[in-house]
Design a protein that fits this description.
The structure holds two protein chains of two kinds.
Chain A (H helix, E strand, L loop, with lengths): L6 H8 L19 H4 L4 H5 L4 H7 L1 H17 L2 H14 L12 H7 L7 H4 L12 H9 L3
Helix pairs in contact in A: 6-7
Chain B lengths: L17 H11 L13 E6 L3 E7 L2 E3 L2 E4 L5 E5 L2 E7 L1 H22 L5 H14 L6 E9 L2 E7 L5 E3 L2 E5 L2 H11 L6 H18 L7 E7 L3 E8 L44
Antiparallel strand pairs in B: 1-2, 1-10, 2-11, 3-4, 5-6, 6-7, 7-8, 8-9, 11-12
The chains are: A mainly alpha, B alpha+beta.
Amino acid sequence: MLNLFDTRGLRSQLKDSIPVAGLCPTGSYGLQDSMRSGFTSVKNELLPSHPLELSEKNYQPNKDKMNFSTLRNIQGLHAPLKLQMEYRAARQIQRLPFLQSSNLALDTLRGSDESIGFEDILNDPAQSEMMGEPHMMVEYKLGLL
Amino acid sequence: MALSNILETPAAGFNFDNVVRNAALEGLLEEQPPKPLKTGTTIAGLIFKDGVVLGADTRATSSEVVADKMCAKIHYIAPNIYCCGAGTAADTEKTTELLSSNLTIFSLNSGRNPRMVMAVNILQDMLYRYHGNIGANLILGGVDCTGNHLYTVGPWGSVNKVPYLAMGSGDLAALGILEDRFKHDLELEEAKELVRAAIHAGIMCDLGSGNNIDICVITRKGVDYIRPYQESAYKDTRKIKYKYRPGTTPVLTQKVVPLKLEVVQETVQQMDTA
């Protein structure tokens, strides 16, 4: 049923989407952790390992794109333009880079403060056990690094 | 400590990090990987004169072993909507809990009881989004302001609206009984007896279903969740706790030694009451 080596189909989905894996391995000291993630292979790092991985990563952007284009067709260009401006403004209300922000304004605009999905239960970033190095993350954000 | 990378917080939701490792391990290990707990079920539902009757067996299997003899397969969604779940046990539990939370938020916001079509649409969107990877076959039954409804939602997101229904591994046996004896506008007792007979047929003819039968009757006036409606003839008489009543063991002698305590030091700390 699911052919993990069907690269042609997956590659076509990759075209306009956000890249999946970083190019640096995730073990300690930047080395590949063979016990946990198996042997290194270029294919594993570039292509998604599960057919749902890309679909889930792009779900919110795709949904927004579809909604905005429908809105543009119905009400004209001003409607999605105004909404996107509000989203950009709300997205800029953040804490320092190593702290988790509540994104309250963004949630209210999106309507996701009135629904619960798997992204609220599984892998909640507010409860992640690892934190980035504060000084380095702020320097990276300010462009000093 | 070596130079640590700039950390991006992982995205919320499902994490696919272990897929590559699992694929690599499957090639190395010779035996089968452990299978998730499935319910291997018979669930059935039908619409009668005043509402909806849902029924389910209570056995949960993990390959060939019975993992739970008394599992609850009829889940609460809203005061007027209940849902039977077949398939992977964890998936049905979590999906119905999410659905129930979403409907509760909605009814708190709007002050209305949720409708069946809302529940079905939320489920359908959620299951279609994950393309069948969430293995949940659900029968939703409920009574709302528009009438009595019975829907089924498949793991890939397909929806069917029907007057009577059976799902799970024992569905063919249960459907045989339902097809034979179902009539529109049955009375309450006849409807309960028909659902019981359907689940009983599933229990007898399917290895994955068994033990007791649960029945849930939903009407405009309220919900009657009868658990268990019928107990299996092969009841287990082993107890879970072995607690003996005091006096079971005879007392031969008794010696009481009072403990002498004397006050060595006393300090008083004032409590700050403002």
